[in-house]
Amino acid sequence: MKSESAKPLIGIVVCGLSDNRQFVSNPYIQSVRYSGGIPILLPLIRSDTMLEQYLRLCDGFLFCGGNDITPLLFGQEPREGIGNTNITLDLFQIRLMKLILSSAKPVFSICRGMQIFNTACQGTMFQDIRYQPGESLDHMQRSDSRSDVSHPVRIERSSRLFSCLGRSVYVNSFHHQAIDRPGVDLKVSALAPDQTIEAIEHSSHPFAIGVQWHPECMFRSSEKMRRLFRGFITAAQN
């Protein structure tokens, strides 16, 4: 049992691969640190035993943004508009996500991370927002700063997200894909004005939340995003 003052260990799952390197973007690390967690980086490994050790080691887990998910993993073949993929990274993250969801340990998933969350629960994706019914917003903003807001989202009152953010919040937006069908035991907790799914939660897990925007980029400028990270860290501490 951790003492009240003990800081929780937060496993930040590797964002992606570049040449012979694995990387995590700095804003994720800083957001965990300044919210009261101890960030540790979890690299891609091909070992179920090591994944179980990750689970035992960490008090909470953060899945970050990155490239697209291999469409075969959500039951589709590639369509026009799909971006770069890496099935080795996809499978590692999905396996780890399933393991975390089988425990009671908190998991917070951002952008691609939310899409991994959905895929791990057998949900499906629109490979590009052009395939989503109706007229969609441009969800890939081109502002000078990644902390700038792009559009509002409306949050369900019954969601865990509501306790952190209230009924609505303005968010940034850097994605060209979107959730189509939410996975098993997942509920939609926020929508954009064009009905794009902006947040999901696991209905039976103590704290498993995914958001489509990038709160780590808004951490310094938005008190609501700081509250969201603090809520995650508090759940991990408890």
From TrEMBL:
Q: Which PROSITE patterns does this chain map to?
A: GATASE_TYPE_1
Q: One GO MF term, please?
A: gamma-glutamyl-gamma-aminobutyrate hydrolase activity
Cellular compartments per GO CC: cytosol
Q: Name one GO biological process term.
A: polyamine catabolic process
Where does the source fall among the domains of life? Bacteria
Q: Which InterPro entries match?
A: Class_I_gatase-like, Peptidase_C26, PuuD-like
Q: Which SUPFAM superfamilies does this entry report, sorted A to Z?
A: Class I glutamine amidotransferase-like
Q: Which organism is it from?
A: Mediterraneibacter gnavus (strain CC55_001C)
The protein's name is: Peptidase C26
Q: Name one Pfam family in it.
A: Peptidase_C26
Residue ranges of the TM segments: none
